[in-house]
Structures are given as C-alpha cells and as structure tokens.
Amino acid sequence: MADMTKLIIIDDSPEDREWLTGLAQQAGWTDISAFDRAAPALDLLGSSEDVMVLMDYNLEGRVGIVDLGAIFSENPKARAVLLSGQESSSIKQIAAMLELPFLSKGDLKVEDLAFD
Hints:
Number of helices: 3
Oligomer: single chain
Order of helices and strands: EHEEEEHEHE
Radius of gyration: 13 Å
Shape: globular
Structural class: alpha/beta
Largest sheet: 5 strands, parallel
Helix content: 25-40%
Strand order of the largest sheet: 2-1-3-6-7
Strand content: 25-35%
C-alpha cells in the first residue's frame, strides 16, 4: 500500500465487491470505493499517483480491460491490477501485455492487497 491512499474496486458482482472491500480493509486500506462499472469511478481518480484500481476482467458481458483506457485517460498515473475468477492463461497473457499485475480471485489473500 505504501504511497497509495485510494483504492477503487470495479467488479460487477456485488458479492465480490463486498468480499474485496473486506479484504482491502484487513490489508489496511481506509479510502475504498467499489463500483459495478468504471464510469462512476472516473470522478474519484483525480490526477495523483496515490490511486490503485482493482479491475475485474469480466464485467457484465464485456471485457473490463476496455474500461482501463478511460481510467488511464482520466489519470495516467493510476496503478491498476487485473482480477479474474478464471485461471485463464489468455487473461494472464493479456495482463502481461498491458504490463498489469494479475490476481486470481480464487487465490486472493489479504497480503495480496497490501501492495508494498
């Protein structure tokens, strides 16, 4: 977490948003916002480097990485992590091509959200 103060979770599953918020709180995050899509999160991005975005790969019938373009247009300094409930090598390859960390929801632990 170090220099970041704001965590934005974007996941279309209400259960996953609640679960990820709880894990983030356990990891020490206090400024956490969760959304089912990227559009409402854009106002919170600001322009500083203190923003971390956890983005689900699959968002209600669309690929979540499509929304990353809007996020990085709004704040090019934001950091993002791609999440998925699927352990897919193609999703991992996409994350690697975009130079984004990838976390599998199935293996996610509190310490994974510390981002030290």
